[in-house]
Each structure stands twice: as structure tokens, then as C-alpha cells.
Please model this.
Amino acid sequence: MKRWRNLLLATGLLALTVQPAMVLAQEEPTVDLMQFIPEQFRADFADLNNDGIPDLGELPPEGVAGIWDDKVGEVTDEGFLAAVGSGYASGDDGSALTGPCKGVVISYDAEGMSVDAMFDAGGPQPLMDIYGRQKMTKSNPLDVDTRGVLVYYGSSQPETFHDHRWFIEAAGVFKDDGGDPNPRDKNRNAGSVDFGDLLPFSFTALVEARGAWVDNWGPTELPEMAADAYPTPNCVGHGWVKFVGPSPFLTPPGILALALVAAGFTGVLFNARPALSWKE
Amino acid sequence: MPATTLKRHPVRGAIWGLLFGTGLGLLLMVMAIVPLSITTLIIYAVVNTSLGAAWGMFAPAKKPKGAPVALEPPPAPMS
Model:
């Protein structure tokens, strides 16, 4: 008995010692996202949490250009491809982005610390994280903080979509769609999505996201179909997103789930068993 | 030996099973162990409803409470 207790204790101590060390052993990034930040602002976007992704830290004052700002159109297709590299092979069909679309996404928590990042170099190459692994697969989803912000740069170069239509949906969380005649011939864009403003409460969930963007479709709603069924050029993608909140047990869905499990288990155990009674 | 009757509770079992299954599905989803999906949630609820009903029918029965009801002695023969 004592031997088992000591073995258990030793295993626990080993796990406590080795596990954090393994987690802390940071991988070396293969893509330097700092290249996308104008040189004069790089000092404001230092990698504070040492994950290879530039952090927002303290936001620059309003009116000062910041991350992804591209007022003079200095991010060219060649420049982007040179920054992210190429020749990535797809090893998992859990995520894909086909067509000319390419870009970079970084997600931040509410304090401006980077949570995750990914990019796509366009064409048949898969979505990748900055450490050289395929991204948005079920085992390597894009982590998004439900109180945080997501910033992106996207481009359809060398194509320019006109009279286009798009949709994006995350199963069970949201769906959005739209389109634009694009009279100004825009073929790249940068922006941010503030999940803290969009979502009513924090939660943790793994969801499958999918979307499409089709050139020359017109004003009618875009149906979900295979990439080769849409007129070309088009961009079609799917993959996994993990929304990350605080502890799942402190969120409204988590509390509801725990209450249901507790009530159901107690009821099954104590209120539903067949019972013998004395015959009168 | 005093006789007993067996009372089964399949409806109660189904209702508690439905609550348990829905909660379990939701719990696994908020812990990001299974993907968020209505279909998955319905499968968890239906499977656990069936299991609950089966539990209410076939689980080992609880022992009767209290002392057996005393049977009235047969009336004394008329002399």
C-alpha cells in the first residue's frame, strides 16, 4: 500500500515538473509576423509573452497608424509571399482555403496579448501556423479569445473580385453574409473583429467554420457548395476554431450544463430505480 | 415470507436521462472536447433518454422500506 502511495506521489511530482517544462518549451516560429508591422511602430508591438507573435500591449493613441495599417498599399502580393514563404504541404483535410485568397490572422486576448496566429499563402497550400504546422484542423484549431480581438490582413491578388458575394458561418455560433459591386477595385483589406463587443458572454467551444467568396455572383444569397461548383475565381474555406473563455465552469453555458448533469444524475440514481414494496 | 410488489419507473428514468444527456453533451461542448453541434446534442439527449428509461425498467430494485405489512390472522373458526 505504502509502495503504491509513494509511486503515485512520485508520478504526480514528475508530472508537475515535466509538464510545465514541456509546455514552456517554446517552438521557434518559421514566419516573422513583425514584417507586417510598419517599421516605425515595431517598438509598440513587442513580443511580450514570447510566443513569436507580436503583442498589442498598450494601444497607440487614436489616429496613429498601427498594426496592419496599409495606407499606401505597401503590402504587395510578392511582398506578402516573400514574408510568409511557400511550399507548405497539406497533411490533414480538416482545413482548407482554396482560390487566390491569402492573408494573416492574429487573435488577441482582452489585455492585448497574442493568443494565436495563422496565415495562408493562397492557391492549394493549406492554412498554416507560424511554427510550420497546418492550422485550423481539429487538432490544431485557431484559438480565439471570446473577450479579445482578432486582426487580419486579406488579399485576393492577383484577382480583383467585382459584384461579389460572400458568406461565413461558425456552426451554432453565427452566420453572416454580404457582397459588393467593388467599384474601387479593392483586392486587399485589413481590419479587426472585437469579440468582446460581439458576443454576449464568454464561453469555450470548438466549432467548425466555413465560408466562401465568389466573384461576379450578383446580389442573390450564396448557397453552400463545393469550390468547383461556384463560378471562378472563388475562394472557399473551412476549418476549426476554438473559442476560449475563462474556465468553462464559470460561464453561463457551463453552469447550465453542470446543473443539468447534477440534476439528471441524481434523479436517475435516486428517483428512477425500480422499487420493491410490501404487498398489502 | 411476506410478499412484495415491484414498481418500475421508465418515464421518470427517461426524463432524468434526458436532463443528464443534454447536460453531458453541453458540458463536453463547453469543455471543447466535442465540437459544438445541435446534432451531437440531440444524439446525447436521445441516447441518455433511452438509457434512463432502460434503467427505470431493469435496474436492480430498491429494497422495500419499513417492516412488512402484518397480514390479518385468519378469522377464528366458528364453533
Q: What stands out?
A: Chain B touches chain A through 49 residues (CB under 8 Å).
